[in-house]
Specification:
Elements (H helix, E strand, L loop, with lengths): L2 H16 L5 H38 L1
Helix pairs in contact: 1-2
Length: 62
């Protein structure tokens, strides 16, 4: 999945968890999915930040 689709799914999960129509098991499953997506998105953002930093340093060195 792309970063954008992961973020979209994470947003859907948050909305579903904010509702009160889920069983405890469903809520726990969605929460787990949300945590996994959050970690994945954070890693993607950190990698993008590092890429931009490296590109800026390369421009400075030239």
């Amino acid at each position: 999945m792309s970063f954008e689709s992961d973020m979209s799914r994470l947003s859907e999960i948050v909305k579903m968890l904010e509702g009160s129509e889920l069983s405890l098991e469903q809520s726990l499953d969605l929460y787990k999915q949300g945590v996994e997506l959050s970690v994945k998105c954070k890693k993607t953002l950190e990698q993008a930040k590092l890429t931009v930093k490296n590109m800026n340093e390369e421009q400075t060195d030239e």
